Amino acid sequence: GRDLICIQSMDGMLMLFEQESYAFGRFLPGFLLPGPLTYSSRTDSFITVSSCQQVESYKYQVLEFATDADERQETEQQKLSSGKRLAVDWVLNIGEQALDIRVVSFNQGVSSVFVLGERNFYCLKDNGQIRFMKKLDYSPSCFIPYCSVQEGTINTLIGNHNKMLNVYQDVTLKWATQLPHVPVSVKVANFQDLKGVIVTLTDDGHLQCSYLGTDPSLFQAPKVDAREINYEEMNAEMKELQKIIREATKTQDILPESEKQRDVTVTAEVSPDLDAESQAIESEVKAEAVPSVTVKITVQSRVAAQKPSLAVCVQAPLAVTCDQFVFDDLEPDSSETVVVSVFLKGNCTPSELEGNCMVSYTIPTELNPEGIPRVAQCNFSLPLRLVCFPSQPSKAANHKLTIDTNKPPVTFLSIFPDFVDPSEGDQANAVGFQFLTGSKTTLLASKTSQRYRIQSNQLEDLWLITKELTRRLEEHFKKQNCKDFACTFSGSIPLQEYFELIDRHFELRLNAEKFRELLSERAVQFRAIERRLLTRFKDKTPAPLQHLDTLLEGTFREVIALADAAEENQTNMFQAFTKLTSATHLVIMLISLWQKLSTDQVAILEATFLPLAEDTQELGWEETVDAAVSYLLRTCLSKSSKEQALTLSSQLCMPKDTSRLKKNITLFCDRLAKGGRLSLGTDLGTQQAAVMPGGCATIPESDLEERTVIPGSTAMFSSHRQITKQKSK
Questions:
Q1: Are residues 131 and 28 both part of a single domain?
Q2: 425 phi and psi, to 5 degrees?
Q3: Quick one: the chain helix, strand, coil %, rounded to 5?
Q4: What confidence tens digit (pLDDT) does each residue in 576-597 have?
Q5: C-beta separation of 632 from 678 below 8 A
Q6: pLDDT tens per residue, range 166-190
Q7: Are 397 and 381 in the same domain?
Q8: Are residue 109 and residue 95 in the same domain, yes or no?
């Protein structure tokens, strides 16, 4: 008839009270943080989960006769005489922290201990043996074993962080229901005539009583009159419906209508001039001044839009002063305007001078008051002056490209007014571009021929200037209503220089893998030394450390040094990937100008060589591009049905070296030079006819190997027209 109370403190002490009187206190061994605690009346023991991720049971009698907590500060002799050492009754290692423990007994003489872990659900016997366990594919928040419907089984309610409540019979899921909130505690209660009411409590104090059940459906489907099927009418109707579907799914018919009826539009206006006062913050560029340019973004809403948020994205190493904006709900025919500045943050030249604005919002409807999610976006282009400034042209350079046109040369003052001094007038036939990162690129125009030369000491620095030259030339002749302007490239594709960038990037990836393995080894060593030291410190009889502290300090310094080296390698790998991306863009442009590829074929090239926006250790550029190029070589660029029958590996993994990738890229360019055409069609017969037109000889594999193993050579590919002339001779 007396109340016995057990209180667990934060320092691992169990305090036992009889009514209001303090009986005794005991410290749990090996305690670090408190875990869930419960009492089993059948075995007269306390059950908890320790910081060692073990379920531990302590008999009340053992607690009563163990060493008193108040005597822990006494001398060793007094502790030995005060009582026995606290011993655990049984232990079960579950390997995870526990959220709650329950002891239930629905059958006479049989009790079960239920433990809810972070990822598993356990049922134990009262002696610590596992009756059953259930692996959960969600993150649980609370549970309660509430009854035994069938003899030998126990029903349990488990709530999770996905706002779901699941009903289990032992390990079998019997029912699942949605809750309006995440429960932190659940009970089953009876209120007067209501039995089996589920009571849930949230972390913000919201209490809800609910029940499981369904309302009866009184609807009965009417009987269908049996009739004969007219297959001719059905076929005609099916063809008509398919025609309507084809018309409705045409892109050119859908997009203009959707543009007219767009609920929310976003526009970006880039300032024509750089900011008078630079807004660059925390830039890693070592230049004297890092410029910035202002982008004005306007969000206009035609209808009521809820929860609008704006994201401004630019490709690293570019950065914006603020990339996330959250607005209040937009009223019909209202707008919001924000202003951001874009600048160069990383110490390398970007591969793209473009940005993207994306607005996400919801439109409420009668059927869905919470709203239907929608997205509106737009792109904007950044000026070249953001990453480079005018400088003196340089005559010497390691890499040179020549772009041919079919129109007379245009003065640089008219197409590059922001880089040419007006005092030079029409006489300027050379322009220098000094990048903020330190490298220089020179653009030359021929006075007698229709050619432009771009030269630089770095291959990747040619890309932005070449792209800007072709873009400005196209705009210049478009203003003059000249529709037949075209650029061509007849030089050699700089594959060897391109392969050097691939090898540099792959070498840094290998270094990252080595650093990861070394860090893992040193971390294991560090934890092992820590365990040894903790064992020495916990021992009642102090023992010499045997230089374990010195070894711990040395290992710690090695871990820090390896982490710094891995971080530096990660920075270098990002810069190498940016340079590789720029060089890849350049190679794609040169191939398209060389072979006069269509827009669809250029899109296939970009999808093949630029599959990743971000390079990771798990999925890298080399293996992805190798798989894509191999697919094209075995489909649209195949030279025989034997190659088409070859199967590609379904798994992408990091290769040992880049020799296979470089060999495939060389073969890819060689097949294009011999008349191959890029296509994603599935008709192999059509592809075969397109790949090998009349007069084209197949490529000997020995010839390919000779091309790839000669060091220091630049791959030279002639057009198909030149090959046919040589054969006709």
A1: yes
A2: 65, -145
A3: 35, 30, 40
A4: 999 999 999 999 999 999 888 8
A5: yes
A6: 999 989 998 899 998 999 999 999 8
A7: no
A8: yes
